[in-house]
Amino acid sequence: MIEHVYRRAASARGIGRVIVATDDARIAKAVERFGGEAVMTATSHQSGTDRLAEVARSLEAAIIVNVQGDEPLLEPAMIDEALAPFSDPSLEMSTLRRQIQDRADIDNPNVVKVVVDRDGFALYFSRAAIPFFRDGKGTSPMWRHVGLYGYRRDTLLRLASLPQTTLEQAEALEQLRALEYGIRILAIETKFDTIGVDTPADLDKVRQLAAAFARV
After folding, report:
1. Where are the alpha helices (DSSP H) in the chain?
2. How far is the CA of 86 from the CAs of 82, 162, 186, 202, in angstroms?
3. b/e for 34-53, b at 16 or more Cβ within 10 A?
4. What domains, with CATH codes, occur in the chain?
5. Using CA of residue 75, residue 199, residue 66, residue 99, what is the dihedral sign?
6. Cα 37 to Cα 18: distance, rounded to the nearest angstrom
7. Residues 168-203 pLDDT 10s
8. Which pLDDT score is estimated for 202?
9. Banded model confidence at residue 212, pLDDT cuts 50, 70, 90
């Protein structure tokens, strides 16, 4: 799975270098076997953001993209979507969102939801169903968060230097640290869909989809 994600990320137009950051020697060896680049990191990191920042300290890139290793259906164009808004020098951080179509996703805590303001900046992320429609007749779309982030390098390093926050710990969502410290996150709507592999059922679904694609 990690090789599949690696090669898809490397296919994005805006990417100059792909690095797998890990504290597991088995993963690093697997990456090296297929010719990829892996960097071993400390085992003490409490989030992917902190692990990414350790590697970013040695890089000169102005923009860093965080791609989760459990997103085997990642489309390279999704990375390009997250990078495009950085033409605005005031933007510090970006991510992606997709409108929820499957009712089961709304109540699934492994599917992270996001609400945004009128300019597309995230107001809050939650594992719960947000927004809550009090009368049950709301018409506002519900958005699924796609766990891919773009950061300015200095923003990433600053974020990783900040203590974890109460909301981050409560929801187990590291992006809430950014919001609590006033770092705005632009959540870009994407037309592409992907599946994060959080459970054995997710893995089975991805395998079925991959087999279907291979037959086309």
Report:
1. 2-10, 25-33, 48-56, 76-83, 103-106, 153-161, 166-171, 175-180, 200-215
2. 8, 23, 10, 32
3. eebebeebeeebebbbbbbb
4. 2-215 (3.90.550.10)
5. positive
6. 7
7. 999 999 999 999 999 999 999 999 987 655 556 655
8. 53
9. very low
